Amino acid sequence: MSGPAFGLTGVGGMIGRVVVRRLAARVPTARMAGLVGPRSSNDLEPPDCDGAWTFGDICDANSVRPVVVGADTVIHIAGPPSVAFSYRHPAASVEAHALGTATVLQEATRAGCLRRLVLVSSAEVYGLPERPVVDECHPIDPLSPYAAAKVAAEAIARAMARTHGFELVIVRPFAVYGPDSPDWSLVGTAVRQAIELPHDAPIVMRDLSRVRDLVHVQDVADLIVTAALAPSEALTDGPFVCNAATGVPSSVADVAVAAAAAAGRHGVVTEHPQPTVTTREDVQMGARPATLDPHRLVGSPVRARNVLGWTPQWSLADGVADLLRRRRALARS
């Protein structure tokens, strides 16, 4: 007997690949079709699970259609996840997230099978937080083209859900990291230095006091799959919105110390402050203005725990150590 049908976008990305594996593990009979991403993107690869994987543009209806036709649940992850990219290419960022979401829902609703959409948004929609821990009732105040595009995607999904009657779950991840974290990311930068620098050299980071809620990609994927599989009676009162967050504040210094400890280093961690003045040219090259970069952004996981029974399993120390082991193994291979 054939199992439930899932359509997924962004399956070639860091979160998407893990979601596919988690979904296959939890629903072995699942039939999956997924959009990997543009074939021109050299860093995108199809998932290593059985499924109908397609390369294509999220804004191209012909690419999206075979992924969502016949799917009663669609998990929409696609779109460049970079704030810096959105400063360099605001039109492309908005197109991918806003028009891409509209294209997915256009094709899914025309097919007539859609029962639930899980939309992966971002904690960036909250802007500068008004309180130490941000819950889902916090005001929306996008401060970058990326965040504005995510707000647009959410609004499009809400409007389409009201029109067509499908269930809508919006997941807002905070600072996601994991085995595929790029070298330029916060965790990637600390781990790269912990591996490459002389043993007694300091790990140098910018603004050691800045605080983020670092949530492992395995935990984020688990929440997304849990949201896709949750019983309908749990998702009451219209669109269900939840944070993918740990509630644990981690400073840049904490990340660097964790990387040093995982590498067995005894050197100190030091700071190379980022200039507070950002020129227009800097922004156009991807630099976020300091006044629009939250000093602290920590999310509440309470709603996801209370409604979906989700609890993050990865500590920062375990996640950083795992990434460091993988980087070392890759370097030896």
Summarize the structure.
This protein has 333 residues and is of the alpha/beta class.
Topology:
Blueprint (H helix, E strand, L loop, with lengths): L4 E5 L4 H13 L4 E7 L14 E4 L5 H8 L4 E4 L6 H6 L1 H22 L4 E5 L24 H20 L2 E7 L1 E3 L8 H11 L6 E3 L5 E2 L1 E3 H13 L10 E5 L5 E2 H11 L6 E3 L8 H5 L11 E2 L4 H7 L7 H17 L1
Parallel strand pairs: 1-2, 1-4, 2-3, 4-5, 5-6, 6-11, 7-10, 8-13, 9-14
Antiparallel strand pairs: 9-12
Low-confidence stretches: none
Q: Output mean pLDDT.
A: 93
- Separation, N- and C-terminal Cα atoms: 42 Å
Strand arrangement, largest sheet? 3-2-1-4-5-6-11
Query: Which H/E pattern describes the elements?
Result: EHEEHEHHEHEEHEEEHEEHEHEHH
The percentage of residues in β strands lies in: 15-25%
What does this structure look like?
- This protein has 333 residues and is an alpha/beta fold.
- 40% of the residues lie in helices and 17% in strands.
- It has 11 helices and 14 strands.
- It has a 7-stranded parallel β-sheet, sandwiched between helices. It has a 3-stranded mixed β-sheet with strand order 12-9-14.
- The radius of gyration is 20 Å and the shape is globular.
Looking at this protein, list some descriptive labels:
333 residues, 7-stranded parallel β-sheet, alpha/beta, single chain, 17% strand, 11 helices
